[in-house]
Amino acid sequence: MPRTLQTTQDGSKTLHVSSLDETYHSHHGALQEAKHVFIKNGINRLKKYEINILELGFGTGLNVLVTLDEYLKTDFCHKISYYSLEKYPLKPEEALSLEYDCFFDESTIKEAFNKIHHTDWEKLENIYREFYLQKIEDDFFNLKNMELPPVDVVYFDCFGARVQPDLWEEPLVKMVAEKMAPGGLFTTYSSKGSLQRILKGLNFEVEKLEGPKGKREMINAWKK
Fold first, then answer.
1. Closest Cα partner for 162 from 136, 137, 194, 199?
2. Each residue of 34-59: pLDDT tens digit?
3. Largest Cα–Cα separation, the chain
4. For a designed S-S bond to 55, which of 15, 24, 155, 174 qualifies (C-beta 3.0 to 4.6 A apart)?
């Protein structure tokens, strides 16, 4: 998939996939979107000593980076195990060309940005302290066959339904739900009515929240 660099409105970069006419992040701001959806309305809503994260998909690695940054700032979470699925991985040099490390003052984040993209796939690797990352190169629909610990929070960050509608339908969402612990949180930038109905049908409590810049609403859903 040919990809080209684009600069978003907050100064951070994203990639545009010409064959899909789709970007990896919002053109309103890649960094602000990641922090709003997956930090403010993601891990910061869980006050747990240990957190298992499942991400669909890894993409540019930005969500890992902002999660590590938040982990370093907080004292409530001792350990994070982060599992991220990606069917079409970027080459490390392509991801590093996005220069996300320039947006963080902490030297640990700058070092981690390089490490995140050079760690081996399929292995649970230590990134820093008690922050672990396992990148999994596979189709999302093979999730049902994967051995994972009970997931506390899901970062549902697939390409939009306009270009990949099957990723937003019940079969995949149900697989994700089955990997989640009771009380687990499903967070996504989307506010699709069909997704809300699917989640409610799978016994989730759905909340509509203010979306990131450029989107009126987004969804949090709690597994009962």
1. 194
2. 999 999 999 999 989 999 999 999 99
3. 45
4. 155
